[in-house]
Amino acid sequence: MIPIKSEKDLEMMRKAGQILSGIMQQLQKAVRVGVTTLELDGLAEELARKKNALPAFKGYKNFPASICASINEEIVHGIPNERALLEGDILSLDLGIDYGGYFADAAVTIPVGRIDARKKKLIEVTRRALELGIKQAKVNSHLFDISYSIQNYVEKNGFSVVRQFVGHGIGTKLHEEPEVPNFGRQHEGPVLKCGMVLAIEPMVNMGSWESEILDNGWTAVTKDRLSSAHFEHTVAITDKGPEILTK
Asked: What is the CATH number of the domain that holds 104?
């Protein structure tokens, strides 16, 4: 059963989304050559707590950090560490917060200094795929209309969508029903209704869609070790169309 949010729920989620949006903007400004992902993790937690929010990932299923920081071939769930960012890296930052018992979740991929043209295109295609997916998040659409629009655009541009990890419903829990895959067939899946809230998050690989998990039990990497990008917004289905809560 996909939860339907009340107007009070949505108001709290809007507040959570705005807080998260502000944190993500400050994190992006802090990304530069030489900074470590551990430093970014500390900054994220500090910024969240200043806004009376809690990092949602820290301790979730024993995840050890506040952010997921995934570099180059790392798709998702990169664990922050003391590796300094290098010129030409791309960094995917994923952060969720808990504000008063309501969750918001967002991700962005950022170039570190100058990056090559292929990585630049990967980032732009992934960002645009999210925008196209969000356009389908409307009343009476089917869930997989979102999935299809993402997959279709990504593959037209010569990239592939990750199969092992998907988006999700979100609300008073970080992960709720339904799963939101980035691949699927049009006009299939549950019908979207006013009050549903989805975390839509295309994860796009430069090469093959195949992935594997590193020995730390968390970090997903591309099997071919080519780069991956990740964008995410928390989106409410409303009578007026999709509302991006983390914009």
From this structure: 3.90.230.10
pLDDT in tens, 49-74: 999 999 999 999 999 999 999 999 99
Q: Domain of residue 201: give its range.
A: 7-244
Instruction: Provide the pLDDT for residue 226.
Output: 98
pTM over 0.90: yes
Tell me the C-alpha distance between 212 and 218, whole Å.
10
117-143 mean pLDDT: 98
**SS3 helix, strand, coil % of the chain, rounded to 5?**
30, 30, 40
Q: How many domains does the chain have?
A: 1
Q: Does the residue 1 lie in any domain?
A: no
Q: Does 201 map to a domain?
A: yes
CA trace torsion 42, 43, 44, 45 (10° rounding)? 50
